[in-house]
Amino acid sequence: MRLGRIVLSLLVAGSVVAVLVVAAARSPSHTERSPLSTGLEPTLHSTTPTAVSPSPSPSPLPRHERAELATAVTEAVTRLVPGTEIGLAVHDRLTGSLLTSHNADRPFYTASVVKLLIAAHVLREAGWRVPEGPERDNLTAMLADSADWVASALWEAHGGPRIDRQMAELMGLSHTAPPAVASQWELTTMSPRDVLAVYDYLDTEMPERAAGFVLGALNGAQRLALDGFDQHFGIPAALPGTDHAIKQGWMRIDDGLVLNTTGVVGSGSRYVVALLTRQPGSTGYAEGRAAVTAGIAALAETLAAEAS
What is the count of structural domains for the chain? Predict the structure, then answer.
């Protein structure tokens, strides 16, 4: 780790405006990388003709199995932290259906998950051009290391709540709303289903180079965020060894603890997962992280079985 100086340059109306200099402990470099491995093996050629049977197409889970899976997740979370409010949505891109859901259209506080919208807005304002130099480093820091001051500067420079409204319209988000206090981006509210829609936009609508940059940053999420918080809970903790690109969220509010785990999971980014929680205010961070991880762990067997 080294101490570097990050110069935040913002793209506003096509011009570059330097607005912030921050010092942050970061890895020596953040390079763009392919977000997830395809897991493809080399083709083997044989001189003997072989009859090939087409692989059966996967089918969506029956309704009762989807309900049972949602119950397993909610019970796993509340067993460790009773009284937790839970929102869940898991999309299987291969079948084009929800694998399971609970309170999928109920808005929850995003905490840092809203940084996905901030990054998308900044890139769109720049004509989907991926920035270079310090500005690129700062966007990466916001996504991978959850740098709050980068988010705050971009939020202010790009119109604050206007970001939420414009991205909701662009991405078709039905249950997303700006914060009641305009400066507090972390109090944006989104539903689990809307979180899935954001990742779907990245996968299907955002220009490839911009999407690759965002997903590459999420794939490179450091275990410790720049504020020292252990952000490897939920998806990365419960699904070790599984390809993933994540955006986590955490914060304390007056009467509760917000802990969210979201991302794309599996070979070929097959699954999109959003588990949003509002836990009782007396909950410790370690206890809360363990509860969210237990919730994702309840999905692990099904995700592995469906992928096989």
Answer: 1
